[in-house]
UniProtKB/TrEMBL annotation:
This is Galactokinase. It comes from Curtobacterium pusillum. The gene is galK. The active site is at D169 (proton acceptor). Substrate binds at E26, H27, T28, D29, Y221. InterPro entries: Galactokinase, Galactokinase_bac, Galactokinase_CS, GalKase_N, GHMP_kinase_C_dom, GHMP_kinase_C_sf, GHMP_kinase_N_dom, GHMP_knse_ATP-bd_CS. ATP binds at S60, G119, A120, G121, L122, S123, S124, S125. The record marks R20 as: Transition state stabilizer. Keywords: ATP-binding, Carbohydrate metabolism, Cytoplasm, Galactose metabolism, Kinase, Magnesium, Metal-binding, Nucleotide-binding, Transferase. The lineage of its organism: Bacteria, Bacillati, Actinomycetota, Actinomycetes, Micrococcales. HAMAP family: Galactokinase.
Length: 378
């Protein structure tokens, strides 16, 4: 299905935005902490044409219903949105909620296509949000910068979609650069681009999608966020970003065991992000493997967001020579990543697939990604 097949004419413009892989720094974003994602060479494209009325129509290549969903600009509310189209409608609503004057704006016909795997923890949702946000910002001539658009995307995800995520995914999708990671301070929104230098070091990032799907708007993600907020309140800090590794013995005295382990993951994960940035700058990517593995162990044991399929993918990759490996994304399914030598990629991918078959798991989708440019007009 194409824009022309749905709407009967050709689109005026196309914008695209990438999914992301988080190299390290999981669940630290909504704790005002540090993250280190990169945009990937899997993208979502929004084909768009302005309308003469104030209606937004949305359709996609992956919506089996086929026909477009329509909402007038004046009727945009979270209650009026439903399903995947809320990722598009929510951006227009969020722009208005964040202060954009849409009183004299016309609507759009929008068609979404994507090769970002859904449910793999590669932020297919933020790819939609960021491509659409950049497009609406340009076409409505709102003049917002990319950091502001990241906040618009996060606000939409939190309040229109209903997923209590932080700002990392949108920041990576909008600010990513070639062969680099985005070092983001989620409190100040200060960013720095850090060279990954994988190409020069003969390394690649292997994504091991377990095909165990997860949904951020339900269940465990919200529970983990609540635990973090509880820990911060008991410890008397604004956010867990304000707790240092040296403060953990005191935290253990004040918190119940489960809350303490949630807190310990966030505090140590923040430190691992800082250590990874320093190591990349001083020693290069081959030196970060132990930090990736420690991150996975913390997510598995303290934050308890891994699943057996993710643990098997990580363990198998390490047994077959990966530099480092960890689950990535919100957890409870999705994907793990492994930093591997280019010439070992196929053997490690085959070993993971074989291990899944032996365990009776669904066949994983294993593929490489490269750090790529962020959202753009194509």
């Amino acid at each position: 299905m194409t824009f022309q097949q749905v709407y009967g004419y050709e689109p005026a413009v196309r914008y695209s935005a990438p999914g992301r892989v988080n190299l390290i720094g999981e669940h630290t974003d909504y704790n005002d902490g540090y993250v280190l994602p990169f945009a990937i060479d899997r993208r979502t494209t929004a084909s768009i044409a302005p309308r003469t009325d104030r209606v937004i129509r949305v359709a996609s290549a992956f919506d089996e219903a086929g026909g477009p969903v329509s909402l007038p600009l004046d009727e945009l509310t979270p209650d009026a949105m439903d399903g995947w189209s809320s990722y598009v409608f929510g951006i227009a609503w969020s722009l208005r909620e964040q202060g954009a004057d849409l009183a004299d704006k016309t609507g759009f016909d929008v068609f979404i296509e994507s090769d970002v795997p859904v449910g793999a923890g590669l932020s297919s949702s933020a790819a939609i949000e960021c491509g659409v946000a950049l497009a609406f910002n340009d076409l409505w001539e709102l003049g917002l910068d990319r950091k502001s658009l990241a906040r618009v995307g996060q606000y939409s995800e939190n309040h229109a979609v209903g997923a209590p995520t932080g700002i990392m995914d949108q920041s990576a999708s909008l600010l990513g650069e070639q062969d680099a990671v985005v070092f983001l301070d989620c409190r100040t929104l200060d960013t720095a681009v850090v060279d990954l230098a994988l190409e020069a070091n003969g390394l690649e990032v292997l994504v091991m999608d377990t095909r165990v799907e997860h949904a951020h708007a339900t269940g465990g993600y919200a529970a983990r966020r609540a635990s973090c907020e509880k820990g911060a309140k008991v410890l008397g800090v604004e956010a867990l970003r304000d707790v240092a590794v040296d403060d953990l013995p005191r935290a253990q005295d004040l918190l119940d065991d489960e809350t303490f382990r949630r807190v310990r993951h966030i505090v140590t994960e923040d430190q691992r992000v800082l250590d990874t940035v320093r190591t990349l700058r001083e020693q290069g990517p081959r030196a970060i493997g132990s930090l990736l593995v420690a991150s996975h162990e913390s997510m598995r044991d303290d934050f308890e967001i891994s699943v057996p399929e993710l643990d098997l993918a990580v363990a198998t990759a390490m047994e077959h020579g990966a530099v480092g490996a960890r689950m990535t994304g919100g957890g409870f399914g999705g994907a793990a990543i492994a930093l591997v030598d280019r010439e070992a990629r196929e053997a490690i991918a085959a070993a993971v697939t074989t291990a899944f078959a032996a365990a009776g798991y669904r066949e994983p989708n294993v593929f490489t990604v490269h750090a790529a440019q962020g959202a753009r007009r194509d």
